[in-house]
Amino acid sequence: MLGKRNGLHFPADLYLEGTDQQRGWFQSSLLTSIAINGRAPYIGVIVHAFVLDEKGLKMSKSLGNIVDPYTLIRGKNQKKAPAFGADVLRLWASSVDYTNDVMIGPQAQHQMSDIYRKLRGALRYLLGNLHDWRTDDSVPYDDLPRIDKHALFQLEIFMKNIMERDENYQFFKIFQIIQCFVFLDLSNFYFDVAKDRLYVGAVALPGEVAELLARQLLSISRVISPILPHLAEDVWQNLSLPPWKMVPQRDSFLKRGGRPRMKNGLLHLMKRSIFGAKFLRRKYFSLWRKYWLQILRLLQSEKSKGRRSGSVCRELRA
């Protein structure tokens, strides 16, 4: 069939089916294709598990525990079955490990709804601070403050990790990486630090901050577009400039020198705890725990000066 239809090729790029087909369609098509064509009919195989109700029971009409996706999206009433929307349901689907049985229900959707609102709030913050941004105000990379170089490097690592997980079909890890980057690296750290530069004594938006915010906004919007298309489209329609005019073209910051260098020994320790998953291995764990309180005190003191150079996100970078 694949070799006869226009636009299709043999073998198939991917076979996708449930665990019940391991001895069914997967096996029968494999044996048949090897006998006829001398090779497997697919390049890759993804086997997914099944969706259960919130109690972990198989859904059936007799038990009356069927969870209707349409009801989760549109809702029935505001108290018992509120409308969560399609994006929240898609966010839930991206968050679960499809290789194991997963549970779905109103409680899981409530949790995803909270995460969705936080993500939307972060994107709204970025949009709100870019309403008067122009690329003429951009700053050369070498003139950026150290904290902005640090944030740019984090952004590139974030995009690199997303692409690697996507190529391996590890969508639930993509969800975790997005959470870690947006909620911890940005909302809890960089946005908090940048407020002084954005709002205190600044008539116009500082060029280095604005360009970095624009890069963060466009990168996150592109990453979430397959998962949250409505939210991504919402962002795209409210950009102050067309996407191709939002940021000037630059080489990869990973190629231009990698991580920003830090002279202070404690800051270097903190940098390793942020970027190096190797630092979290057993041989470093006791040392990391010893200095963690010192790092927190340093962050508090640096916050008042607007010179913090780290992030609290320590995982999902391996």
UniProtKB/TrEMBL annotation:
<dbReference type="GO" id="GO:0004822">
    <property type="term" value="F:isoleucine-tRNA ligase activity"/>
</dbReference>
<feature type="domain" description="Methionyl/Valyl/Leucyl/Isoleucyl-tRNA synthetase anticodon-binding">
    <location>
        <begin position="148"/>
        <end position="244"/>
    </location>
</feature>
<dbReference type="Pfam" id="PF00133">
    <property type="entry name" value="tRNA-synt_1"/>
</dbReference>
<dbReference type="InterPro" id="IPR013155">
    <property type="entry name" value="M/V/L/I-tRNA-synth_anticd-bd"/>
</dbReference>
<dbReference type="GO" id="GO:0032543">
    <property type="term" value="P:mitochondrial translation"/>
</dbReference>
<feature type="domain" description="Aminoacyl-tRNA synthetase class Ia">
    <location>
        <begin position="9"/>
        <end position="103"/>
    </location>
</feature>
<dbReference type="GO" id="GO:0005739">
    <property type="term" value="C:mitochondrion"/>
</dbReference>
<dbReference type="InterPro" id="IPR014729">
    <property type="entry name" value="Rossmann-like_a/b/a_fold"/>
</dbReference>
<keyword id="KW-0648">Protein biosynthesis</keyword>
<dbReference type="GO" id="GO:0005524">
    <property type="term" value="F:ATP binding"/>
</dbReference>
<dbReference type="GO" id="GO:0006428">
    <property type="term" value="P:isoleucyl-tRNA aminoacylation"/>
</dbReference>
<dbReference type="Pfam" id="PF08264">
    <property type="entry name" value="Anticodon_1"/>
</dbReference>
<protein>
    <recommendedName>
        <fullName>Isoleucyl-tRNA synthetase</fullName>
    </recommendedName>
</protein>
<dbReference type="InterPro" id="IPR002300">
    <property type="entry name" value="aa-tRNA-synth_Ia"/>
</dbReference>
<dbReference type="InterPro" id="IPR009080">
    <property type="entry name" value="tRNAsynth_Ia_anticodon-bd"/>
</dbReference>
<keyword id="KW-0547">Nucleotide-binding</keyword>
<keyword id="KW-0030">Aminoacyl-tRNA synthetase</keyword>
<dbReference type="GO" id="GO:0000049">
    <property type="term" value="F:tRNA binding"/>
</dbReference>
<keyword id="KW-0436">Ligase</keyword>
<dbReference type="InterPro" id="IPR050081">
    <property type="entry name" value="Ile-tRNA_ligase"/>
</dbReference>
<dbReference type="InterPro" id="IPR033708">
    <property type="entry name" value="Anticodon_Ile_BEm"/>
</dbReference>
<keyword id="KW-0067">ATP-binding</keyword>
